[in-house]
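Task 17 of the worksheet. Students: predict the tertiary structure of the chain below and write it out as structure tokens. Keep your answer in the requested format; marks are given for formatting as well as content.
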Amino acid sequence: MLEAIDLTCVRGDRRLFRGLNVTLSPGDLLQVEGENGAGKTSLLRILAGLGLPATGEVRWMGQPIARERDAYGRALLYLGHLGALKDELTAEENLLSDARTAGLPGIGSAQVFEALDRMGLRRIAGLPVRVLSAGQRRRTALTRLLLAPPPLWILDEPFNALDAEAVALLRRTLQDHVSGGGMAVLTSHQPLALEGIAVRSLKLAP
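Model answer:
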């Protein structure tokens, strides 16, 4: 369902990678590995349609994502380093705003509170994001994975700033998503050992 064909990425006067091919089908989990500066984040942004390759093309359901931006946007959840949270809004307000933007009328305060509770965040749901710790901010962003998740997840270092309990929950969430026919591409410095899931690896060299 997701194809990246002959991708080349250039930043400034430096080529990060070239001739890169990626395919993902339902039930696939791809871990992108490499040293800092190898192009992991650049690749994820290209796959999410947030960056353009120097050469090559990304396709969704056989169509270039440039032609299917709305459909691709509905099928995709991208989480970058910063989590795309608004500091002046509470955790609850951020997630409700995301649900409205994504056109999910069935997501209300009850569903948001339940998801925040699963992430261990119910007590801070009414606090502005600006006062939360790095770990709480990360878990707030990751709560989106529990709210009517789309089929494709693209996650940049999702385990960063998480405590052991949150890491275990994220692993279970990934396992449930992929075993249920979802797809995920992620970067992580941690080894991914998920029960019943074959984790594919893509190593980028600087």
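Marker's comment: Helices lie at 40-47, 69-75, 91-101, 109-118, 134-142, 164-179. The mean pLDDT is 92.
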